[in-house]
Amino acid sequence: MARLLLLCAASGLLLAAVAAIPPPEEAARMARYVLHSCDWGALATLSAQEGLRGRPFANIFSLSDGPPGGGSGVPYLYLTDMEISVQDLEVNSNASLTVSLAQTPYCRKHRYDPQNPLCAHIIFVGSIVKVNDSEAGLAKKALFSRHPEMESWPKDHNWFFAKFNITNIWVLDYFGGLKIVTPEEYYSVKP
């Protein structure tokens, strides 16, 4: 009997470990999973800065799609016009956003290099827009639940909530190249 209980417990742990990360054939679920697992991403803009105008410019931003366990799939950001990438976005709101499981314990635990396809990363393409008043509460809850320090950032910086409007999604989570996921597929699944 004890052996049976131990076997059941081990099976349960194995199932929990397997369920923790979506399988490679579920690219839309993987994209949602990776975004929800990440606290920051690399946002690439086209620079509007003197000397860099029109050239790619990447910067790190804190983000959240919702409180832990409650992701919406929408990447929210807390921005200020004082930030150089936000100045780029004011000229051209198009951007790409890359998030990777390399920032989580998952890849370290499995000893995956961040460039290893098994250390999944997602590339979103779209645009950054300020959220409207009806969505500001969702963005605030999403961001402040994961980044509580944001609440105390200087008020005179005129912070505002924004979101990444996704138009294209590429998933690299296994060998064999990128997988394309439509926004409709992405938003229709749970992470």
From TrEMBL:
InterPro entries: CREG, CREG_beta-barrel, Split_barrel_FMN-bd. Residues 22-188 form the CREG-like beta-barrel domain. Residues 1-20 form the signal peptide. Transmembrane segments: none annotated. Keywords: Glycoprotein, Secreted, Signal. It is found in: Secreted. SUPFAM superfamilies: FMN-binding split barrel. GO terms for cellular component: cytoplasm; endomembrane system; extracellular space. Belongs to the CREG family. This is CREG1 protein.
